[in-house]
Amino acid sequence: MKARYQPAFEKALEEMKGIVPYVVASKSDAPFDREKFRLSFFNRSFLIYHPEVKVAELDNESPPPQWLQLLLLHYLLTASGMPVADDWIAYRHLPGAYLFESKFTQRAVAPLVQTFGHDLEAFRRAGLALGGIPMSRTGDAAFRFLALPRIPMACILYLGDEEVAPSANILFDRAAPHYLPTEDLILLGGYLSDALCHHQP
Question: Mean of the pLDDT values across residues 180-186?
């Protein structure tokens, strides 16, 4: 897994050397103080040091996995400062998503259907445990999550019955591509899906 992300990780480390920290902090809503950014990721907190680039999780001595470090660095590097649009879109409507949509469905959506398709209460418990805020939308239950300071996400469950198969969807704010590349949003969706499914009792 590490080798897969290594070239992109090394490129991100190099690009981080050229940033202006306080400009990035303003665009990303990740405060910068005393040579480090503080970045919230769902219900976790990370420190990204600069100019000696290093990623660490607050209150956790183990280094984050490389894919997560890359995701956090890409967020800082990509952040444009665009306001959150408060307009939800499916993954397939993101730029270039046709290249990755099947992977996103397999990685992020299918496990939700398999785990919660016939268990609404388990989905509700998992959503609340991860810090989700219940939403009034179509579907049998839906939660809003703040993945990164300017990337809200929504997860919706549609229960199955004798005639209709269960389904689920993960939505992004329309401004998400201004904060992470479309391919990286697969990782974000996969993390949310895993976190919900692993909150199963």
Answer: 97
pLDDT higher than threshold 70 for residue 34: yes
Place of tokens 């229960």: 159
What are 148's strand-pairing partners? 151
* Residue 90: both structure tokens together: 């499916």
Region 53-71 average pLDDT: 96
Closest to 104 in 3D by CA, of 176, 163, 20:
176
Dig out the tokens for 39 from the structure: 């970045």
Domain residue limits at 181: 88-197
Please check whether residues 93 and 147 belong to one and the same domain.
Answer: yes
pLDDT band at 43 (very low <50, low <70, confident <90, very high): very high
Burial class (CB in 10 A: 0-12, 13-18, 19+), 78: middle
Q: Identify the H or E element spanning 172.
A: strand 167-173
Task: Indicate whether 114 and 66 sit together in one domain.
Answer: no
Cα distances from 6 to residues 2, 16, 39, 75, 189, in angstroms, run 6, 15, 22, 17, 21
Q: Is the pLDDT at 18 greater than 70, yes or no? A: yes
* Confidence grade of residue 199 (pLDDT, cut at 50, 70, 90): confident
Count of domains observed in the chain? 2
183 and 151 in one domain? Answer: yes
